[in-house]
Amino acid sequence: MQKAIKRYFPVFVLPTMIAFTIGFIAPFLLGIYLSFCKFTTVTDARFIGLENYGKVFQDPTFLHSLWYTVLFTVLSMLLINVLAFAVALVLTKPVRGKNIFRTVFFMPNLIGGIILGYIWQLLLNGVLAHWGKTLTYSGTYGLMGMIILVCWQQIGYMMIIYISGIQNIPGELIEAAKIDGANSWQVLRKVIIPMVMPSITICTFLTLTNGFKLFDQNLALTNGAPSKMSELLALNIFNTFYGRAGYEGVGQAKAVIFFLIVGLVAVIQNRMTRSKEVQQ
Questions:
Q1: How much is the CA Rg of the chain, to the nearest whole Å?
Q2: Which residues form the ABC transmembrane type-1 domain (predicted)?
Q3: pLDDT score of 280
Q4: How far apart are CA 228 and CA 111, in angstroms?
Q5: With CB atoms 3.0 to 4.6 Å apart as the test, which of 169, 224, 255, 269 could cross-link to 231 if both were Cys?
Q6: Which regions in the chain score pLDDT beneath 70?
Q7: Using a CB cutoff of 8 Å and minimum separation of 24, what contacts does 94-101 make?
Q8: Distance of CA 23 to the CA centre of its chain
Q9: Residue 88 in contact with residue 159, Cβ under 8 Å?
Q10: CATH code for position 202
């Protein structure tokens, strides 16, 4: 069997590798090259060196979008994980109808981001209208609106992952801790949280990358208004590439920088949380 697998391995892997190369690797490498070019289409690209990257850091909208995205990502990541973990703790207890509650909490994740953005725009603007405000009144209102939206959408999904982690904890560990005199808080801190660190790693990674990559909800909810004050990084790149003639190369350079930032942050986060798993 092993010899047969080794013999026919290239036959099964080759189609996937060809598709992956055509659909991902080639466009990715071409995108890096285009970030050093001035172009309107792929065929008229002209190499100009680091000029596009210089314009990126001279663009105040990019720098604002960068710190605004970092703030949004940190706040949404913390809120989503804390609330999802709390809900998971409750719904792993012997609660009547807990399967129905799990389904209800998970359902928002099935709705598309654009639709969610327009729905929550109507809801939140209706509430803010009582104070004479809207989501586009300032970047702060837009930030709060997006945090509410992504929390509502993603808490249920992260809850499922945390429930899986909590249910895999051996009951004997919790019983032994209680016999040794540990109260509920000590059981949570010394037993449950250390044992669900793999789930925390996954959920933190997902919420971190989702926060940085958020686009469609931002587009539908505020579209960067007012004056690009609520514009996240992905929307800023989109508007640069498609909204400013002659800035296609700058938009591509922003995309490369965006990739490096997200990749670096994700690697650091993954190593930090995985180190906690090893310690346990």
A1: 23
A2: 66-269
A3: 47
A4: 26
A5: 224
A6: 277-280
A7: none
A8: 22
A9: yes
A10: 1.10.3720.10
